[in-house]
Each structure stands twice: as structure tokens, then as C-alpha cells.
């Protein structure tokens, strides 16, 4: 199976070819009450391209031949997005954001919005530079830091109509948080999880790629740093939250549409999350002990996908296709720690010949990639989304088919691997012939041994008889 070429958008590696014998559905059809019965094979799949790598430290030429400085940090890149050192100089340390700083704050928010996921991963610092802030906070402005937070309160700030139109921004959020052993801080974010209660006390675990803006106080009091972020993550007390998955990323997904570049962060964070648990642990958490009597039907995944985001489940079925897909963004590979995953096409008892897509981190030793497979497997993992892909109809027309997509650690083989293609059947015939010849040979050898023993016995008591000679026909 081949993958669609990587798109030029800042997006994600293609989730692969989903060639299925599943029922034909139009994109404008309402959800069925059960999975559709059958459909022709899928055509070339949609692509979710890998996020483009952030620009490396190379000198480029701008308008009029002017040299663009090398990109060595997030501050260099944010300057290219419209917030240079002079704009950062509008902020004054030792006090909260003032009215005179609001326009500069909005400009930084707009610049931060332009960063891709890969750029955030490349430039973010792992530790908060408290000492450097104390020495010269201005020199650290615009740097991005991987923050671990506890959110205490969130407030929505709506822009007046003129500013909203001017900056193409309707609202943002001011979040009071604590970092590093209960140090107070403020994060201005473009997005926060929808389920958080606004203007109410909160106590939620979070994280952010925070761009340092200024200090709201000065030593010896707590410095109270102020950050700008695209979004605040959310780690609730659920299976996924405990695995370090930002559950708030599911809020940006849409079901029954093709894979979009914006799906990428959620997909790869989900792959990273399942890698933090053993396969046995995921299976135990599903409490699904009997693969022949599953407790997780697939019908809701087809017909009520909006209620399934992030749900843990175990499915058993037959894998018909397995493909290895490579992540080609070095920033993502470096941070996530893996450069490939596998896409499986599974058919369950209750999917009515419709495929279920699994994306897994690894394969067992006795499983391989290929098409026309016939391998019974069981996989535990989390629901990602139900997507649509094109299928080819007789006459060359194209329609759309829905298929659930889930993410797991690895499949478990339920029984010895079987062949279902022509090569497998041919090999079965060959093996059968070889066994038959071997049995015949053993029988002839055994018969010859018996006759030899008879001849040896008779040679001591009687002369050779004619009937001991082999028959020779004219």
C-alpha cells in the first residue's frame, strides 16, 4: 500500500491508505443506525501531512536582497512574525499588563498564533531561567518555555469590534497559574479547554508552550512572570490524562471529514501517550477479558463518533492490511522519540464488512506488513475520530466512506498467522505435496526394509526364490 505524498501545508504525515470493502456513503448522508453493509475498495487516501520543520540556521535573502538573520531561537522567529526587539521593549517589568501595553500584547498573540507545532517543539526551553530573568529580563523576552502549570482561574477577554476586526481576533483568555513550586504566574492564551469554568476557582493540571513576555513583580518578592501561549493543555484524572495526554486537543477534531493538518497535534500526542503504557496495562484497563464476546461494539464509532473521543476500548477482529508509515518531521521525531507507526485495517464481527482503522506504535514479532493478510488480532487503545475517505465506484466515479480511527500500543495475536492470498494458497499446496512425497518415501523405505530383512533371513535357510525379484514388465 502506498501513502499520498506529503502536503505542503504545516500538517502531518499521511495516516495511510485505507483500501476497504465497505459500504458507499455520500458525504451529505445522515449517520446510519448501523454500520453500512459493503462498499468498493477505497482509492488513494487523504493525507495528513507532517508539520513542516522550522527553518534551520541558514541565511536567506529578503525583499531587495537584504539578508535575513539566522534563526537561533524563538525570539528570532517571532521577530520575523512581526514582533521584534523594539516591540518587546514596549513592555515594562515590575507591574502587570497596563492599558498602554494592550496593543503590543495583541500583536504578540497574533505572532504566536503563527507558530507551527514543529516550531514550538524545536525552540522551547525545558527549564525556566529564573536567574537570567533577575539579571536582564528584556533579553529573555520572546523565548518559549515548556511550562508545567496548575491553573487557578481563567477569564475570557473579548475585544471591541474595531480591535477584533483589526487583529482578526475575537477573544483571548487570562489565566492565573502557578509554576515551579507554587510560583505565581499569568498566561494569556488564545485557547483553553471548553469544559473549564470561567471566572471560578480552578485546580487543574495543565501545560503550555509559553512565550516569556515580562515580569509583573521584582525580587525579593515572587517575580510573577507573564507568558503568551497558543493554548493551555488539560490533563484530567482519566486514563488519558494520567498518561500525559492533552485531552483538550480532542475539542479541535471533526468527525466524518478527511484528515486535516490541524488533526496532527492530537494524533501524535495520542501516539505518544499510548507509548507510556504497556500493552498489557491498556488491555487490563479495558476489562475486556473475552475476545469472542466483546463488550465494545463498533456501531457507536460509526454512528455516534462525537461521543467517543478519547474513549479506551479493546477490539478483536481480522487484520487485512498492515502498513508502516514514517514521520518525516525531525522536530516531531526528536521530541516524541519515534519516527514511524503502523496502520492496520481491521474487520470485526459486528462491523459488517466495514473496516476499522488502527494506528499502533509497534508490531509483535510474528506479524508483518503487507496486504491481503488474514491475521486475527486484538488491540486496546483510544478512539481518535471517524474519518471519511474516497472510494472508487464502477464506472470510475468517486464517493465517500466513513471509518473509525483508533490509536493503540500494539496488536496481540489471537492465533497462529494465516495466509489468505494466492501466494499463501500456493505455499499450502507446495507444503502438502512435500509432505505427501515424504510420507510415500518413508513408506517405500519401510517396505524395502521389511523385504530386506526377509531376504537376509531366507539366505541362511533357503536359496533365493524367483518371487523375491522385482517384477519386470515387457
List descriptors:
disordered C terminus; alpha+beta; 25% helix; five-stranded mixed beta barrel; 474 residues; 14 strands; elongated; five-stranded mixed barrel; disordered N terminus; 12 helices
Describe this structure in words.
A hairpin with an 8-residue loop joins strand 9 (340-347) and strand 10. With 474 residues, the chain is α+β, with helices and mostly antiparallel strands. The chain has helices at 74-80, 85-88, 102-113, 117-123, 130-136, 161-167, 239-242, 264-274, 279-286, 299-303, 330-336, 422-459, and strands spanning 60-61, 67-68, 144-158, 171-179, 183-191, 204-215, 225-231, 312-326, 340-347, 356-360, 373-392, 398-408, 412-413, 418-419. Mean pLDDT is 79; it is low at 1-66, 419-431 and 449-474.
